[in-house]
């Protein structure tokens, strides 16, 4: 009997937009139906209020993304569907200078702030300014986490951190150094209301943020269980999926994404190399990531597990994961997203289809 599984990417993916990058007129022109959107993150699920939803754009398609991006950055030089590159790695290409080094969050439950502030915000604001990331312009996850954690060393909600970035801002790790131990308790309770730190944060705010949502916002199952969709309801079901193209387009445009998943329920294996395949000539296989950790599915259990926020920095359509262990390269086994974590470890990968393709079960 097969174990039920879910799509790891049945979740909310978000990309911060920096202050000053969106003209006031453009903000009022951006709209989306957010009446049924559920924010799911490390501490559970929480409905977005009408007041909160007013400033959140939810993007469901490539067309939505193109329209939204055009209002912020201006229209592309060439319109229409363009061919995406087979691989993108914003942690190793010309954008790598904007990404801070991978570090360890320790035993403080600040994974959301690490993904959204330390990685995503630092990367995005420094890329917008065109300046390489150093310790002097890397932004502190601890400052954000302490202000949204409800005075506990537990999980937080991504939209709370984004709202903090919008209203209060961020400070660098020179102002609030990284702390990775829960003792003393001030490491996760201190609000840093001294030395002009809050005033400094006001200079580093975002104007808006966007959720790239690869599911059905009216799905009652999703609403009840917060991003845990059954495998049969997987929003990405083939290499030609519109939802898959949306995420890859965002990454190809030099953005990075923050997402949440029930990491303790992952089913993992390792990236395979072409020498293990009986039909290697069928696809172009990139062996550069062979042996690396890759997540292929998640055991379905919405009531237990460990929610964890991570960051997607790229994808590679030429990575092969032998999901069904038959030494045959199936269509549903090609492609993986590249992730960075806050566990002090290196590269992680996640199958683009997570085993949803019938040929790879």
CATH topology: Cathepsin B, Chain A
Distance between the termini: 12 Å
Tally of strands: 13
What would you say the CATH architecture is? Answer: Alpha-Beta Complex
What percentage of residues falls in helices of 4 or more residues? 10-25%
Q: Provide mean pLDDT, rounded.
A: 76
CATH homologous superfamily identity: Cysteine proteinases
**Helix/strand order, N-terminal first:** EEHEEHEHEHHHHHEHHEEEEEE
- How many structural domains are formed by the residues? 1
Largest beta-sheet characterization: 8 strands, mixed
Low-confidence stretches: 1-14, 16-49, 216-229, 355-361
Radius of gyration: 20 Å
Specify the overall morphology: globular
TL;DR of this structure?
This protein is about 25% helix and about 20% strand.
General description of the model:
- The protein is α+β, with helices and mostly antiparallel strands and 361 residues long.
- The chain has a single domain (5-360), classed as Cathepsin B, Chain A, CATH 3.90.70.10.
- The chain is built from ten helices and 13 strands.
- The protein has helices at 24-29, 50-53, 62-73, 111-129, 141-148, 158-167, 186-189, 197-201, 220-225, 242-252; strands spanning 5-6, 12-18, 38-41, 44-47, 56-59, 87-89, 206-213, 257-262, 266-270, 293-299, 307-320, 334-340, 348-351.
- Strands 1, 6, 8, 9, 10, 11, 12 and 13 form an eight-stranded mixed beta sheet that branches. A three-stranded mixed beta sheet has the order 2-7-5, sandwiched between helices. The chain has a two-stranded antiparallel ribbon with strand order 3-4.
- Strand 12 (334-340) and strand 13 (348-351) form a beta hairpin.
- Helix 4 (111-129) crosses helix 6.
- The longest helix is centred in the N-terminal third of the chain and has 19 residues, at 111-129.
- It starts with a strand and ends in a 10-residue tail after the last strand.
- Mean pLDDT is 76; it is low at 1-14, 16-49, 216-229 and 355-361.
